[in-house]
Amino acid sequence: MSLHDLEVETLSGTRTTLGELVGGKAALVVNVASKCGLTPQYTGLEQLHADVDGLVVVGVPCNQFGGQEPGTAQEIETFCSATYGVTFPMLAKTDVNGEGRSPLFQALTAVPDAAGEAGDVQWNFEKWLLSKDGEVVARFRPLVEPSAPELAEAISAQV
To answer: Do the domain assignments include residue 157?
Structure first.
């Protein structure tokens, strides 16, 4: 099964599939938070979403790391659009680790990073690059900036 077949819920409460959300493009799925030291990465993520043809960034708010995403869906949407001009799709607040881990993150966390480590999400702004077919092709840990050469190279190979 492709990740494109997984049902997801958008921040506005609409149920869809990941494939419908990304429309046949490569995707960069990122767990995000509004009150994190890494929150300024929203700027680079929005730039990727706007500037890279064939790529959709998908933000996934998560409150499992230091309570750094405490807001409601409306508060998250307002913060992201007003503060960082975010236009990329956002999913509903999601558990990425633990017993309540969403099916999407059950699949994503099974994929190893460049060092060969799979498993739990380490912190906010961890990133997974998906091919146009919905296969995970790379995993990047939180400190990898959206402008990092290794991320740009991986994206270029998919678009």
So the answer is: no
* Number of folded domains that form the chain: 1
What does the H/E/C string look like for 75-112?
A: HHHHHHHHHHCCCCCEECCCCCCCCCCCHHHHHHCCCC
Is 158 within the bounds of a domain?
no
36 counts as catalytic: yes
CA 20 to chain centre: 16
* Options 27, 29, 36, 104, the catalytic residue: 36
Domain of 52, in residue numbers: 3-152
The answer as to whether 77 is a domain residue is yes
pTM: 0.96
Question: What is the pLDDT tens value at each position of the chain, 159 positions in all?
Answer: 689 999 999 999 999 999 999 999 999 999 999 999 999 999 999 999 999 999 999 999 999 999 999 999 999 999 999 999 999 999 999 999 999 999 999 999 999 999 999 999 999 999 999 999 999 999 999 999 999 999 999 999 999
- Nearest-angstrom CA–CA distance, 73 and 10: 9
CATH of the domain at 69: 3.40.30.10
